Structure formats: structure tokens, C-alpha cells
Amino acid sequence: MLPFSKSAIIGLGAVLLVVGTEGLMFIKTLGPAEKTEEKEVTIVEGNGVSEIATILKETGLIQSEKSFKIYTGLSGAARNLKPGLYLIGGASIPEIVGMLEEGPVARVTIPEGLSLYEIDELLSEEKVIVKGSLVALDMKVIEEKYWFLEGVTSLEGYLFPDTYEFLRGSDPEKVAEKMLANFETKVTPLLHKDNKNVKKEVIVASLIEKEVPHPEDRSIVAGIIYKRLAADIPLQIDASVCYAEKQAGCVPRKEDLSIDSPYNTYKYYGLPPTPIANPGLDTLEAAVNPETSPYWYYVSDPITRETIFARTLDEHNENIANYLKK
């Protein structure tokens, strides 16, 4: 269920005040129609309240046309109903009116580096999906549609950051497919057509996205990651520890570095089991085209966001003292 809009609350209060006892029966008809499944409804430019009420009643989304017309009149929403294609199901008249006032399409920008959990929350705030539904989406439903998802256990890393237009109240599967199709179009030309390598490249890109602020430093860090993997040296990436604890942008404490999680790259060797964020195109390109360098270590200056590289552990510890312990 979507929350009541401000006008919905005002309108409902107005109804109670105006119609009195006789309105109690009327109030019942403001509730959702019984066993209403999600349906597409098109409101055409120029449709008035009466026409919209008829459309909603014939579609089985409201109990009473009269109740819809009275409610929109008393709430002051009658002049604010916007045309377009809507997905509506299991909603009361006040909720439907709120949706029609907001308009059918949510334009949402997914920034680079958000996690699956953060994208889910952002989309739920925009009323595109029900909170938690994207995170809970069964991979079996969609993995066969995209070659790069074979053997992948999570959408994490594959929801391409971009600006999208979604219908409010969308099926999370359709939302995921829109972002995955965008990933396929824009990203897969960069990637190796080998699923094992693709998984590795996307995971590495996600680590770089969260670790390295400056784009020009990312291919160097990619080279360091691959070099440490080949030498069987722990990656020791703070961002993966933060992901293990579901804390965006955290600074791990000493005790955090010993948590028992496959995402703890201080304790466990190799890459984490999944990406830790959804990387952008430039970062994915850096992961696919790592730069060879003499460096084995790096830190990011928290003030300038510059990446400071080191060849030896002694150099690295000196950089930590100079830049992270100011």
C-alpha cells in the first residue's frame, strides 16, 4: 500500500466533517476494491473526473464512481489529476488520487557506486517499487535472460547507474530488467565474453568505484588489485568491510577488520563473493584495462581525495601516518 498523500488526508478529513453519520457507509467505499490485482490504467489528456471515475470502476480498481467524484471534489484534487499510464493495484481512493496527482512516471537518477540495498531504498522512496522487493527478487526469474548473469547470485554490480523513467508501482522484475538491459547495451561491449572473467571484472570495478575517488587513478588501482590477487596477497580493501557491515562510507575500526565475513578482504584472500556496489562505465573500463605500475599499495587523502600510491609497505605506512592520521 502506498502512503496517503497530504491532500488525501485533508480530503478524508473533509469527507468526515461534511457528510457526518450518513457518510460512514460512504467512507467504506473509499477503501480498495476487493481482490484487486495490479492493472494498467491510461488517463488521456482531457479526461475529467467523471471519465476517470468510470475508467477506474470499469477496471475494477474502485468500488464506487460516486465516491471517487465526491472525494476528489472535497479534497481539491479534481484539477490536479495528471494524464498518463499508471500501474495501480490494491489501493484506496485516497491513494489512487495521490498517485494521479503525482503523475505516472518517476524520473530517477541512480548514482554510480550505490549498492543494491541503496538502489532499492531510493526506488521505494520514489514509489517505484515496494521497499525490499528489488533486494528480494529471485535471480532464477531473470538470470536466463542475460548471458552475463549465469551463475550470479545477486543483482549487485549489474544495475547500471543512469537516469531512468519508471512507472510508479512497478513490478521489481521489470525495473531490474530495464537496468540490466542498459548494462547489456553499454557495458558488455567492454567485457570479455567469458562469464568467469566478467564476474571478476565487475567485482573489481565495484571495489574500485568505492575505493578510488579520482577516475584517473582507477586503472592503476585495478592493476594493483590484479597484481595482489596473482601474488596471493590479501586485498585489504576497507570498502568491502563496510559492505559486510552494511555501512555505506564507513571507516572500519580495528575490531571490524577481524569480522568473519567473506567480504572481509583483510581476513580472507581473493575477491569478495559478489560486487559491493554498482560501478559506472569509466570504472568498469578501468577494471577491464588495468594499468601496470610499480605500486602495491594505496590510500586516499580524505581531504583532497587524491590517491597516494606506495611501492613498499614501509612507504604505505608512512602515507597512512601522513594522510590518515592528521
Automatic annotation (TrEMBL):
The keyword Magnesium does not apply. Belongs to the transglycosylase MltG family. GO terms for cellular component: plasma membrane. Functions as a peptidoglycan terminase that cleaves nascent peptidoglycan strands endolytically to terminate their elongation. This is Endolytic murein transglycosylase. GO terms for biological process: cell wall organization; peptidoglycan biosynthetic process. The gene is mltG. Signal peptide: none annotated. HAMAP family: MltG. It catalyses: a peptidoglycan chain = a peptidoglycan chain with N-acetyl-1,6-anhydromuramyl-[peptide] at the reducing end + a peptidoglycan chain with N-acetylglucosamine at the non-reducing end. Gene3D superfamilies: Classic Zinc Finger, Endolytic murein transglycosylase. GO terms for molecular function: lytic endotransglycosylase activity. Its EC number is 4.2.2.29.
